[in-house]
Task: structure prediction
Amino acid sequence: MVSITAYGGVNEVGGNQILVQDGKNRIFLDFGMSFGKFFTYFDAFLAPRKLNGMGDYFELGLIPPIAGIYRNDYLKHMGRPQEPLSCDGLFISHAHGDHIGMLHFLREDLTIHGTPETLKIMESLEETSVAGLTEYVNLKRTFEFYQNKKGGLSRLEGEKAKVPRKIEAVDKPVEIGQMKIRASPVNHSIPGATAYIIETPSGTLAYSGDLRFHGYGGHLTEKFVKEAAGVDTLIIEGTRMEHSSSMTEEELTAKVKTEIEATKGIVLANWPIRDVERLISFLKAAKSAGRYLAINPKQANLLEKLGEANSKIPKPTDPAIKIFVTRKSWGLIDRKLPDLNLVNEDYKEWERKYLHASNMVDYNELRDNPSAYVVRADFFDMTELTDIRPNETSCYIRSVCEPFDEKMEFNEAIVNSWLDHFHVGRRPPTIHCSGHAPGQDIKRIVEEINPKTIIPVHTEKAAKFNEFGKKCILPVVGSIIQL
Ligand SMILES: [Zn+2]
Ligand SMILES: [Zn+2]
Result:
């Protein structure tokens, strides 16, 4: 008997945590962070306490109360007994925080399955993040001590604390008990996204993850729809059920190119940091307008890691790409000091490679040759404008989703203040297309797959799925759906 229990992604966009159980065998589909729930209780200056292990997360229902899936170092610190492993694997659809954000808390012996691209993105996130729940690839044993040379106790830290997680690329079907799970890649706003098709003794099941047709990899989503045709149960996202259409990445590229060509000065552009398809759109537009695209070191690291899994990803050494390294710490990058180590100390180990790359540019170059560049600048880069000095001949292209809460509106107002301060003259309306299929595309997916039962997740419009004339089960957090 197969059952499904959704612990997250219910009546909300994201935070997917879906347990599939067949007899003794249990797997999770995604283990994400519910940003909605998280920011109900926390903000930038009020974070969950690390000292409480997972306690603050359990308290607020950010992770489910299930035995045998959580890391034992945190459990021990919380005064809870050690538990044997009770889950046979986590299958990740893609590396967005609302799908992998709570993975940090899982045990290191719980096998994590994902596409090679997803695993590379997790590596990059772990390497380049400053803080947060980023032990995606290596778990760092915490709250443990060891006997030091002086006979006292020291905290276990650094390399000594590192335990690699059990990770497997989903390049072939995985058998767990009587379940057979295979990945079926789809297109989304991050590389490596996949759906899963699961054969079980009680029927077949497909999980869409997040998907769309209107990106460069739309053919993958088409292929998934064909592969999943006729499954008994379809767990499907419905982020944009109330929207009817989307512009394609190709159309977006043309619009961006028009804006670049109409600009004399520097073009500042904000697109989601890990949306590589959007990066490709800006790269194409910049190239055809005869400019360089300046990305940041985090994006360069991401492209480099992804390149190890997928040769079609642009390389950070592409002749049209420059890496914009900002001043950090003491800001010594352009001081021409006799000892390079003094400059190196301003940067983290992983960043230094880009600091010394032949295609590195600093603010002097962007300020002195503004017409040669399209540079990515998001909310956190606004202070760099003081160095880059855009003016009325400059342009700011907004290529992210519209603000959907007060916090985002507030940040947007701050960005506008900076642009006003520098009299940035050209500010076209937002040029963006979503990572999610609009309602009419979801309808087509449901019609073509033609499942007996639909379970909508990752949506605030779950009831709209009732309109498709199929048996539709609206999940309830923590309640078991028998298939
Ligand atoms: Zn999502
Ligand atoms: Zn996503």
